Amino acid sequence: MSRTQRLGLIAVAVAVAIAAFVILRPSDDSSDSNSGAQPSPTSNPTDTAKKPGAPKPKPSIPTIKVKAGKPVGGVGEIGVDKGDVLRFAVTSDAPHEVHLHGYDISKDVTAGGKVTFRVPAKLDGIFEVELEDLTEPIAEVRVSP
Q1: How many domains does the chain have?
Q2: How far apart are CA 8 and CA 59, in angstroms?
Q3: Is residue 70 part of a domain?
Q4: Which of 52, 117, 125, 145 lies most in the core, judged by the most C-beta atoms within 10 Å?
Q5: What phi and psi, each to the nearest 5 degrees, are found at residue 121?
Q6: Is residue 71 domain-resident?
Q7: What is the mean pLDDT of the chain?
Q8: How far is residue 90's CA from residue 84's CA, in Å, rounded to a whole number?
């Protein structure tokens, strides 16, 4: 075998190895979080880490907006696990009594005002939030066991 033939075979072997690597490597959109991906050089691993002494971010509180006696966007859906704290707010363009059925808690909202509910979720099930004076449902609360 001549030197030229050997170099040609080596070149073919290298091309086959490169093609196999490209074809068999894991894709970037893999759903496996343990694919061995390393953080990019520009990412800072402390960006997502909780810093000691840093205040906890406030949880998002669902807000039901009431206009003309109806919930804007339809009856809201709020979900929480039993044992957690159920939080939601109601804003209204008119005064109403807001009633959380099952827990039997009522609060008054003023015209242009906002009322906030913060209740330990001790009972599991599905509960209606209603404008009591209009018997108008504005939200459904689901407390999962």
Answers
A1: 1
A2: 65
A3: yes
A4: 117
A5: -80, 85
A6: yes
A7: 81
A8: 20
pTM beyond 0.70, yes or no:
no
CA distance 112 to 59: 24
Cα distance between residue 4 and residue 21, in whole Å: 26
Q: How far apart are the first and last CA of the chain?
A: 76
Whether residue 49 lies inside any domain: the answer is no
Q: CA–CA separation, 89 vs 55, rounded Å?
A: 23
- Cα-based distances in Å from 43 to 26, 27, 48: 22, 20, 10
The alpha carbon of residue 89 and the mean position of all alpha carbons in its chain are separated, in whole angstroms, by 18
Closest C-alpha to 62, from 84, 74, 82, 77: 77
pLDDT category, 12, cuts 50, 70, 90? confident
Tokens of 27: 């894709």
Is position 118 within any domain?
A: yes
Q: What residue numbers bound the domain in which 99 lies?
A: 63-144
Contacts of 89 (CB under 8 A, 6+ apart): 61, 62, 63, 64, 114, 115, 116, 117
d(CA 131, CA 98): 5
Give the helix ranges, DSSP H, for the chain.
3-24
